[in-house]
Amino acid sequence: MLYMVIEHFRPGKIKELYKRFDEKGRMMPESVNYVNSWIDENVEICYQVMESPSEKELNDWISHWDDLVDFEIIPVITSAEARAKVFQSEPR
Fold first, then answer.
1. Domains of the chain by range and CATH?
2. What are phi and psi of 72, to 5 degrees?
């Protein structure tokens, strides 16, 4: 399953966040896969796509960061999957 993870960096915590990342990496369970991420120009919000069997594994990862970041988790599907979902209900 794919998830859009929106990370809101807590004020004054961004340097601590990057320092922890440099020292410890992402600290993800083996079952979680980082796909890609983008950060707004103000370096306050990160938009990240993650792949995970369930939200439980994502929550295990989040537990390493939730003192520095507020997380929003949104299950997503690809555009191709969305198109197939839309047209599968149409009669042929």
1. 2-87 (3.30.70.1060)
2. -125, 125
Beta bridge partners of 79: none
pTM value is 0.87
Cross-strand pairs, 72:
6
Dihedral pair phi/psi, residue 66, rounded to 5°: -70, 0
Taking the chain, what is the end-to-end CA distance rounded to the nearest angstrom? 29
Residue 92: pLDDT band (50, 70, 90) is low
Q: In whole angstroms, how large is the CA radius of gyration of the chain?
A: 16
Q: Where are the alpha helices (DSSP H) in 1-92?
A: 14-24, 55-62, 79-87
Contacts of 72 (CB under 8 A, 6+ apart): 5, 6, 7, 8
Tell me which residue of 67, 22, 73 sits closest to 49, measured CA to CA. Answer: 73
What confidence tens digit (pLDDT) does each residue in 24-36 have?
Answer: 999 999 999 999 9
| φ/ψ (deg, to 5) at 75 | -65, 135
